[in-house]
Request: fold
Amino acid sequence: MLKPVLISFAVIMTAMPAMNAYAATTQELFSEPKDVKEVKNELRHFTPVQLITSIEDNKILSKEVKGKLIRTNYELPPSYTPAHLINNYKNQLNALNTNILFECEQASCGNEDKLVKFIKPLNDISDGSPSLITAYITLPKKQVYVSIYAAGRKRATNLEIDIIEVIEEPLDLVTTDQNYLSQEVSEITVKDNSQKDTKNSADHPMLSRIPGAYIQKYITHGFNQASVLVGDNYKTMELEGKITDIAYILPRTYSEFEIDTNYQHALTKLGFTEVYACLGNSCGDDSKLERKIALLATIGFDENQFYRLYKLDRAEGNVYAMVYVIGFPGQLSAEIRIIEETTLNNNRVGIDLQGLTDEIAKTGHVALDGLLFKYDSDELLPEAYPIVEVVAQYLQTHPKQLFYVVGHSDDQGSQAYNQTLSEKRATAIKTRLIKQFSISAQQVEAKGVGEYSPIANNLDENGQKQNRRVELVIRSDNK
Reply:
C-alpha cells in the first residue's frame, strides 16, 4: 500500500516553528510533506513567471504571471509516486474551490526533457513518470497561482512547488534625495601622501604633482640620453639633455583619463604641443613598451594606457615632456619624463696632469673633479673618461709610487649602503685603470669610506655634491 502523504492546507499560520526564511513562506499555503529528505528554497520579490496552460503535440503553451515567487523543492523517498503526490495537492486545492488551469500525468505531459527545461525545478533528479498541475486561487486579499510538478526515479521522488502571489511591481525599493540635486558637484578629497616619497626625490619645478600622489621612483641626470615613443609599432627617438624622470603612485579614486587630461591641460597652458599620442591597446604591450623606452611606471593593463609626448620650442633649447599613465583596479601610476635639450658641458672635467701632479706633491692627495657616475650606480658617465686617463698618465710616470683610490659619499641613505656604494665606485676606477691603461694592480688599492670623511656641509645639495667624490691618495707603506 502507498503511504498517505498527509498534506494539509493552512491559510492562517500564527505560530510557526523557526525554519529558514524561505521555508517559512511556503508554509503559508501548504504544510511540508512527511518523510522529506532534502529541501531547497528560492524567493523572488517580484518576477514574471510562465505557467503551463496546455501541452499539445509536445508544444507547451503558457501564461505569464507577475508577482512574488516562492519556490520550494522537496526530495522524497521513491515510495511516493509523482501521481500520488499531485493527487494529494489537488485534493487540498479542490477544497479551496481552486480553478485548475492545467493538469497532466505521464504521457499526457509530453516530452519530459522539454517539460523539465521549461519548469527548471531547483533539483532535477527525475527520469520518468512526470505529473503536473497548474491552478489559480482567488483569496479575500490576494490572487495566487500554483504550479506543482513531480517526477520520480529509482532512489527518490522530486517535488517542485511554485507559488506566485500576484502583486503590482514594487517600485519603492529606491528613494531619491532631492537635496542632492540642488548641491554643486563636489570633488573627491584625497590626503597628502608626500611623506611616502622615495628619498632624495622632488617634483620637477615645471609641474606640480597631482593631489594625493607620491613619488615611487625618481631619476635625474645633468646630461644623459632618453628614449621616447614617437610613432606606432614602438617607433622611438633618442633625446639628449638634462633628464628628470618621475614615477608617481596616485589615489585610485582618479581615472586614467582624468590624469591624462590634467597633464594635457597643464602642458598646453605652458605652450607645449603634442608630438605623438597613443591610447589603450594601440600603444602595444606594456611590457614591450617598458623595455623600448625604459619606463618606470610599469604595472597595469594594456587597455588602460595613456601615452603622450609634448614639445616646447625654445631658443635656449627645446623641452620634451613625456606623460605615461597606466593602471588596474588596485593601482594607478603616472610617469613624467622631462628632457631639456642641451649640449654636453665639457668643462666638468676640471683636472689636468700638471694640476694633479702639483696637488699630490703639495698635499699627498687630490680630489678627482669630474669623476661623474650614473645616479645611484658605480657606472662612470662618458664625460668622466678623460679624468681616468689623466690619473693613468700620472701613475705611469710614477710607477714605483703606491696609491689609494678612495671613494666618498654624502650622508643621504643608510651608512651601510653609502659604504658599499663608495667601495664600488673606487673599485670601478681601479678596474678601468688596470684594464684600459695597464696600471699594475699593486700600484692602486680601492677603498671606500662612505660618509665618514666629508669636506663640506651635508645639510645642503651643494655640500652633498662636494662630499660625493673620489680621491687619489699617496701611500707611504708597502703593506
